[in-house]
Amino acid sequence: MPQLPDDLDAVAVRTWCSLALEALGRERAEIDAINVYPIADGDTGTNLYLTVESATAAVEAVFAAHETGTTAPATADAVRAMAHGALIGARGNSGTILAQLLRGMAGVLADGGDAAHLRLALTSAADAARQAVAHPVEGTVLTVAAEAAEAARGEDPDLRTVVTAAYEGARAALARTPEQLAVLGRAGVVDAGGRGLVAVLGALVETVTGQAPARGPRTASGNAAKAPVTVDGGSVVGLPVGGTPVEGVTEAVGEGGPPAGAPVDGPLDCPEDGGAGPAFEVIYLLEARDEQVARLRARLDALGDSLVVVGGDGLWHVHVHVDDAGAAVEAGVEAGRPYRIRITHFATESGHDVRVQAEPARRAVVVVVPGDGLAGLCTEAGATTVIARPGEPPASGELVDAIRRAHAREVVLLPNDAALRHTAAAAAEQARTEGVRVALVPTRAAVQGIAALAVHEPDRGFDEDVVAMTAAAGATRYAELAVAERQSWTMAGICQAGDILGLIDGDVAVIGADVPGTARTVLDRMLAAGGELVTLVLGEDVPDTLADALEEHVREGHLAVDTVVYRGGHQRAPLLIGVE
């Protein structure tokens, strides 16, 4: 049996994230099924799962960076990674607020993980989440978070006591949510977002005690509550609050609502009358200063509702429902630099919000790219793109979203990164459950994805197209230049901090002093085995003169080899190279 932690160190944080992801995975469908406020849009559990998935991936990345060391990462690094991962991967209103809860906790736990710090962390989390919501409503996850923090108050120095008290307080608060929010009472269900938070806190209990706690909300007698679910215009069906939905419930509450799998999360501050509301959901990440975000909040609040702005330290996650999506994005542009912009269009039908969908296309390509420049190139070629920014690899949920946006019966997925292999496989599997035929071409670099996209022909058979794209990618050797961050052993010898590394097919093959010289050496090594086409993808700060010099080098030293140059924009590597 593993040793139980005496405080929340980095290993405990990693375990907590993993267990929380497992818990939300088990309960995702149940939470989706009870998501009736303010409409039965049925995806709160999914949004919470995808948010925690992103947080978990960020923590795992911190541990991966310490694989060669003898000690675990610092607690501060782990909790900050957890908060940052949740922030950049937040989905919907519920996920956005959970991200702020984790951020509030991380700010305190970075200084210590004992019982006293955890009490302060829970209070900080509840306060931060409430402040992030423009118009808080009681009977939601905000109430559950506040009650969890209140239940944990005291002087007991035992971490297990504090965690258990917080969990039990959250369960009790969750059971009372139908009394506080009339729409929940009429439906006979607890708040879906609060139910997800209870699952996350339950994972924390299991982390520090080694035992999974009782599931579901608590009633006054301590037993799971049971109440009917009332569907507007329909019949009453039984649903145990905190238990498994009976057969047909999900179908009933979704009647007249959004299509299966549509990622539209219910706001926490919408009117209880379930009115039609604004036409668009707008979400984006924003790089901006604090004073600019304060003005942004005021402007977005005037434009619509369901406003939640979370984050800090220059990076924010913005969520709002508006009628003028362009104005919401424009407000973000005036405040700073918005990116990962997602706009969902709703149409009113029988009092429910539904997504307007055209007939799906026959086939589409979804491609992960490392910068804005390649995103534009791939978009022009007809692909749906996902940008993997430095230090921010996309989670499987983001890839699933892209597959949905592609809106096709057949999809070819190009991850363009060996590290995304499992993430892409999970996204493909999820999309297949939604009726989409997905083929995953295991491209390991952006230049392989470009080669595959170049031979894509949507009019030929699906299998034939996938084979051709796979062959084109496999025939493309890839390389990239990187700057060494510290002294390290490599396949090419010992490098020092600041050295330019030339990686060919993923391994360090050249150690150089500058970018031009290293690039020439890498090209010569790659072309020694032959080649017909060289692809150069320049980073944002790399001058055009480098491309000109490398083109001339190839032309003079390697006859009958053509060179094509692209601008990659803001990407991790200053130069990407492909040889076909």
Topology:
Layout: H1 10-33, H2 44-64, H3 75-89, H4 92-109, H5 115-132, H6 141-151, H7 159-180, H8 182-187, H9 192-209, E1 226-230, E2 236-240, H10 249-253, E3 280-287, H11 290-303, E4 304-312, E5 315-322, H12 325-335, E6 337-349, E7 352-355, E8 361-369, H13 372-380, E9 384-387, H14 396-406, E10 408-414, H15 421-433, E11 437-440, H16 446-454, H17 462-474, E12 477-483, E13 488-490, E14 493-495, E15 500-504, E16 507-512, H18 515-527, E17 533-539, H19 544-557, E18 562-569, E19 575-579
Parallel strand pairs: 8-9, 8-10, 10-11, 17-18
Antiparallel strand pairs: 1-2, 3-5, 3-6, 4-5, 6-7, 12-15, 12-19, 13-14, 15-16, 17-19
Description of the structure:
The chain is built from 19 helices and 19 strands. Helix 13 links the parallel strand 8 and strand 9. The radius of gyration is 25 Å and the shape is globular.
